Amino acid sequence: MKRFIAGTRGSALALWQTRHVAALLAARGVESGERIITTQGDIDQSARLVGKLEKGFFTQELEAALHAKEIDWAVHSLKDLPTRMPAGLVLGAVLERAPAADLVLVRPGSVDDTQVIPVKSGGRVGSSSLRRESLLRHFGPSLSAQPLRGNVPTRVQKLADGQYDAIVLAEAGVTRLALDLSAFAVFRLNPVRWQCAPGQGAVAVQCRADDDATRDVLSRIDHAHTGRATGLERDFLRILEGGCTTPFGCFVDGSRASLGIASEAGWRSLRIDIPVSPDGAWLQARLDELNAAPLEVGNDWLTRRV
Fold first, then answer.
1. CA–CA separation, 183 vs 162, rounded Å?
2. Contacts of residue 86, Cβ cutoff 8 Å, sequence gap at least 6
3. What's this protein's function (predicted)?
4. Can you list the domains of the chain with their CATH numbers?
5. What are the residue ranges of helices labelled H in the chain?
6. Catalytic residues
7. 218 SS3 class
């Protein structure tokens, strides 16, 4: 059997994900190597990602290498992939999902357990997306939401250095890298009420649509349940056509979905049952309901200390 080549970004998390894919395949008798490819998202450290994810900010160079047949597959965080796949490329596998929730890491001197978001009034809270900023403004109006860029270890180090009182980031990345968080108070945000980014916590493996050999290999590690759940989350986002410019969150768990969207009045949420075969009309109707849904309210089960 041929030795396959995987394309990956060079961050610690991207390499972990790529090597996890390699380990899963090796256990099934498939040998693979890796090629590190720098993307625009690795170079551009501007404060905000507004409008960039749907343009392939973290993926375009990897996809170009796929088209050029320089690599056999590319490994991505699914939430970074645009919802509209470039012509000739497909998802060959979606791995079993890690925890989808966001975490709040708080410096010990900045904890205030009386608040919905347990950070002292006026605290500087770093986040890397409009969704998280919108949720912070809604649930923690006394807090100061600040942009936060860099890879996961860099973000945690910025908190340790005192640049922020707290930061919000995905639990999956912290867990995968086994980062030491003992210096902070750690709170998990309930994804049913603090909705995650569509696809958050899942690893996607992208390949060429006409590469039957690679698709056959990748099908061996595809996790169907995760693929269905995250696929529906991304279907909502694709119909919304908000990408990174419209703050939107979605979490599918079994036969239930929780949707959230920013509005001028605050963060609106909707929890719904999922039919057996949801179609585009059903998805659009639920998004219409979401835009008229009540504002989400805070209570003592938005966060749980970890």
1. 12
2. 56, 63, 67
3. Tetrapolymerization of the monopyrrole PBG into the hydroxymethylbilane pre-uroporphyrinogen in several discrete steps.
4. 4-95+202-223 (3.40.190.10), 102-196+301-305 (3.40.190.10), 238-291 (no CATH)
5. 12-26, 40-43, 60-67, 130-139, 152-160, 171-177, 212-219, 224-240, 280-291
6. 80
7. helix
